[in-house]
Design brief:
Blueprint lengths: L4 E3 L11 E7 L2 E7 L2 E7 L7 E2 L2 E2 L4 E8 L6 E8 L9 E4 L10 H19 L11 E2 L6 E2 L6 E2 L4 E12 L2 E9 L10 E4 L6 H13 L2 E13 L4 E12 L9 E7 L13 H17 L1
Parallel strand pairs: 2-8, 13-17
Antiparallel strand pairs: 1-7, 2-3, 2-4, 3-4, 3-9, 5-6, 7-8, 10-11, 11-12, 13-14, 13-15, 14-18, 16-17
């Protein structure tokens, strides 16, 4: 998804009529609750606190995010944090981003993902990790610099690969899907894992698949990417083909892994995820080959 958004560090010099505020209590977002749907809070951007009907928040921290393209004019966007004991105003609630899948407009959801990572970075990098001096936020880039030793820290982004493995069995296309033992819901997904220091993305694909299910791959190809703010991942999607080996589970992490056809797919992840996009692309490829 290409978001119609222009990131920026510099808030508008003049007051604007309205803005989106992505306000977090811990990692829960304040939203206007409308039952099956929700939306981010809005307010006049000229004030440092968010006013609603009869409610004013004291903000622990705030950051300007940039502009979301609107139908008539760009809408300015802000990230902010309130204290853990803060109660939401009437008609609003604090909710985790996973709870807001399919309820929040797509652009609000991904901007909230950007906002929560910036808030978490500000919250967890108050002091220099080298000399414990209070960090200073830089004006020209999204970073903090220690005024004592000069160490610069940026918002953390953790690259992770996610890969769909295809295989022909008796002339029928199959896809490898696994169930993580830590997942509370009973669904299957493609394999994924974090990139290690000094490792290429392709090497990570081969290593993770072999570690988790014991098979070898060939024809690894890039598919696409998705920011995933749980807590700060950048998911880099790939497809690959089976090259050899039998499924041997890494039992500490993988509860089950099987080869599925397009007609026997189990419960799958949300359509909001790149994991689901990878599986949907497999189904489209199978349907295309049958025409």
């Amino acid at each position: 998804m290409k978001l119609p958004f222009n990131p920026s560090l510099t808030p508008p010099a003049e007051p604007v009529t309205s803005a989106y505020w992505f306000i977090f209590r811990d990692n829960d977002l304040l939203v206007v609750d409308a039952g099956e749907t929700a939306e981010a809070a809005t307010a006049t951007a000229e004030r440092a606190a968010l006013p609603t009907a009869s409610h004013t928040f004291a903000l622990l921290r705030q950051h300007y995010l940039g502009q979301l393209e609107g139908q008539t004019e760009p809408i300015h966007c802000y990230a902010a944090e309130v204290a853990s004991e803060t109660e939401p105003p009437a008609g609003m609630q604090f909710a985790g981003l996973r709870q807001l899948f399919m309820r929040l407009p797509m652009e609000h959801l991904w901007l909230a993902g950007r906002a929560v990572q910036i808030i978490d970075w500000d919250r967890t990098h108050l002091f220099c990790s080298r000399c414990a001096t209070l960090n200073q936020i830089l004006a020209h880039e999204r970073a903090k610099k220690c005024p004592n030793c000069g160490l610069i820290t940026y918002p953390r982004i953790s690259p992770a690969i996610i890969v769909r493995v295809d295989r022909m069995i008796d002339g029928v296309p199959h896809v490898l899907l696994a169930r993580n033992g830590r997942w509370q819901r009973n669904f299957y997904s493609v394999l994924a894992g974090f990139v290690e220091p000094g490792e290429t993305l392709e090497d990570c694909v081969h290593r993770e698949v072999f570690e988790e299910v014991g098979i070898r791959l060939k024809k690894v190809r890039y598919f696409g990417s998705q920011p995933w703010p749980f807590p700060n991942s950048l998911m880099l999607g790939f497809t690959a083909e089976y090259a050899g080996g039998d499924i041997v589970l890494e039992e500490e992490e993988i509860a089950d892994a099987q080869w599925f056809t397009a007609d026997t797919l189990p419960n799958l992840p949300s359509k909001m995820s790149i994991a689901r996009r990878l599986v949907d692309a497999f189904m489209e490829k199978v349907e295309g080959s049958e025409k």
